[in-house]
RNA sequence: GGUUGGGUGGCCGAGUGGCUAGGCACAGGUCUGCAAAACCUGCUACGGCGGUUCGAAUCCGCUCUCAACCUCCA
């Protein structure tokens, strides 16, 4: 079954058939983190969503250039202090030390979630020249003005000359923005509250500073994405992604900068992931409604009753569509943990199934082929992982029934079995990016396996002699050691956890 | 106040004019020495009020309500 890839374009608020600018190639830009503190769980959700999108595009045969930036300058706090500088001041480190520390942490966390690294991971501080050039171009085009060493984007001038397009991504209108703009501090230099800085003069105590035609300063927050996406993907490219909260003002201003500098709008498809909530509310450090990935991994938090591994969390994320808010609750995580285990056990069972029938495929075999094809088709529909997963679970119950004998293996021919193994494996591991946890324990695993063979052999002997006191004692002791024994019709099985 | 998107069974979460989403939980059953697992069956819902339609959770209007954004945020 082959279907066309459709995706929801935030620009048009519609699902559209995806057609790349250059056949066979995809340029994908995703707004990365500002590296001034530990990576937030919400970041993990967004980047995992785009990881699956990246993986799926590759599966579809596209040669993808995936660019995800690191913002290490320009992002100011409410007080107007650069986030990097603030982190450095508090920890008594060089700003670049702060950036490196949290970049390293970010990479480690991405690896824990089994997210593939992007092809290019440009840093804002590594592209000061490109940003200065873009400011110059925007100035030359008459969409910005300089005041006291700072350069501001002139939103109203831009809007007047661009068909009132400013705000089209987020649905905002300038007059409404003006009417509602609140009293903001230190914005006297701006001609209008909607204008935004593309270059800022550095104050005397500002550490991060570069020479520019306007004196020493630093680039505005939104500029790096425009400059770097243009540099690596071109003035027009295919897909731009990011969190929903970046739609306004970040992405809106990015578009304005792109149009203002080259007359073209950058990305043709905008994809936005939705927010991660906890217990129905946005995660927020200030009111205690927050949890770190690390706390989830260890279970060390008042918000959870158990520990949840990165793959359980990934599975949990797969159960929600990327454009929906996702509510993190302990009960939902418990459900995900069990669901993930059931899925992985079925995957292991699939490997042990042996076709017994002839070349003809029975009903069960056909149902399995259909379910698998439908799972893939769901991915074509705006990367609908929850629906694809639902189809996968239709396969899971067939696999379990075949293994348990409730369904006959004579109903499934060898080629179907092989096709399901290949197709499901690709979907689960290459596209969903799941992996079997604990399976890579290495040499210790092999030793344990041999010991377990011995123990289960002894236990089987005890059971054959109806020495149930002994067999139960063995099972209880193994349980206490974290090993679960399950008696099946073809002998006992065991698993860790 | 404005913008954007929601309100679905015990919980999470898809769907979007007629056809069982799925996961978890719960109850009954099959299997089993017991247990666990697995399988089968059941619980069959769409915020409220109107309207369109042969038919609406799905479309339209009104209303209540939640979240995010508008101020740093993935």
Task: Tell me about this structure.
This protein is of the alpha/beta class. The chain has three domains: 6-273, HUPs (Rossmann fold, 3-Layer(aba) Sandwich), CATH 3.40.50; 278-431, Orthogonal Bundle (Isoleucyl-tRNA Synthetase, Domain 1), CATH 1.10.730.10; 443-496, no CATH class. Helices cover 46% and strands 15% of the residues. It has 16 helices and 15 strands. The protein has helices spanning 41-59, 83-91, 95-112, 128-140, 155-161, 174-180, 223-233, 247-262, 293-298, 310-318, 330-352, 363-380, 385-404, 414-431, 443-464, 468-480; strands spanning 6-9, 14-17, 25-30, 63-68, 144-147, 150-153, 196-201, 217-219, 236-243, 266-273, 276-278, 281-282, 326-328, 483-488, 491-496. The strands form five sheets. It has a four-stranded parallel β-sheet with strand order 4-3-9-10, sandwiched between helices. Helix 1 (41-59) links the parallel strand 3 (25-30) and strand 4. Helix 4 packs across helix 8 and helix 10 (310-318) packs across helix 11 (330-352). The model is unreliable at 181-186 (pLDDT under 50). It binds one RNA strand of 74 nucleotides through helix 1, helix 6, strand 9, helix 8 and strand 12.
């Amino acid at each position: 079954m082959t279907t066309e890839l459709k995706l929801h374009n935030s620009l048009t608020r519609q699902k559209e058939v995806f057609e790349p600018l250059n056949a066979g190639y995809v340029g994908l830009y995703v707004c990365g983190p500002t590296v001034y503190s530990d990576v937030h769980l919400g970041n993990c959700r967004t980047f995992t969503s785009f990881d699956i999108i990246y993986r799926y595009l590759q599966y579809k045969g596209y040669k993808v250039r995936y660019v995800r930036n690191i913002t290490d300058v320009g992002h100011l706090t409410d007080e107007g202090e650069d986030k990097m500088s603030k982190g450095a001041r508090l920890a008594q480190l060089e700003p670049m030390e702060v950036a490196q520390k949290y970049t390293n942490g970010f990479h480690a966390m991405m690896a824990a979630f089994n997210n593939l690294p992007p092809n290019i991971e440009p840093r804002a501080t590594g592209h000061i020249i490109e940003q200065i050039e873009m400011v110059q171009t925007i100035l030359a085009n008459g969409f910005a003005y300089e005041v006291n060493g700072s350069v501001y984007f002139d939103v109203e001038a831009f809007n007047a000359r661009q068909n009132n397009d400013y705000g089209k991504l987020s649905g905002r209108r300038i007059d409404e923005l003006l009417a509602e703009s609140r009293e903001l501090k230190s914005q006297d230099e701006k001609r209008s509250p909607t204008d935004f800085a593309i270059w800022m003069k550095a104050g005397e105590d500002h550490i991060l500073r570069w020479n520019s035609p306007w004196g020493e300063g630093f680039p505005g927050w939104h500029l790096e994405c425009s400059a770097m996406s243009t540099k690596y993907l071109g003035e027009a490219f295919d897909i731009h992604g990011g969190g929903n909260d970046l739609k306004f003002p970040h992405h809106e201003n990015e578009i304005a900068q792109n149009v203002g500098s080259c007359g073209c709008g950058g990305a043709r498809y905008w994809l936005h992931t939705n927010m991660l909530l906890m217990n129905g509310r946005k995660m927020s450090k200030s009111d205690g409604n927050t949890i770190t990935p690390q706390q989830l991994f260890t279970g060390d938090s008042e918000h959870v009753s158990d520990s949840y591994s990165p793959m359980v969390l990934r599975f949990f994320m797969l159960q929600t569509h990327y454009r929906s808010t996702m509510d993190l609750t302990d009960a939902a995580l418990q459900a995900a943990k069990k669901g993930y285990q059931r899925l992985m056990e079925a995957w292991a069972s699939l490997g042990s199934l042996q076709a017994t029938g002839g070349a003809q495929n029975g009903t069960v075999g056909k149902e399995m082929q259909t379910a698998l094809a439908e799972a893939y088709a769901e991915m074509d529909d705006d990367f609908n992982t929850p629906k694809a997963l639902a189809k996968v679970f239709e396969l899971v119950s067939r696999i379990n029934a075949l293994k348990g004998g409730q369904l006959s293996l004579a109903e499934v021919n060898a080629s179907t079995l092989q096709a399901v193994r290949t197709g499901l494996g690709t979907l689960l591991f290459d596209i969903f990016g799941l992996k079997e946890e604990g399976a890579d324990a290495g040499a210790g695993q092999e030793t344990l396996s041999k010991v377990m063979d011995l123990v289960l052999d002894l236990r089987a002997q005890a059971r054959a002699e109806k020495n149930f006191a002994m067999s139960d004692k063995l099972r209880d002791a193994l349980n206490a050691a974290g090993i679960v024994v399950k008696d099946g019709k073809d002998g006992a099985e065991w698993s860790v956890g």
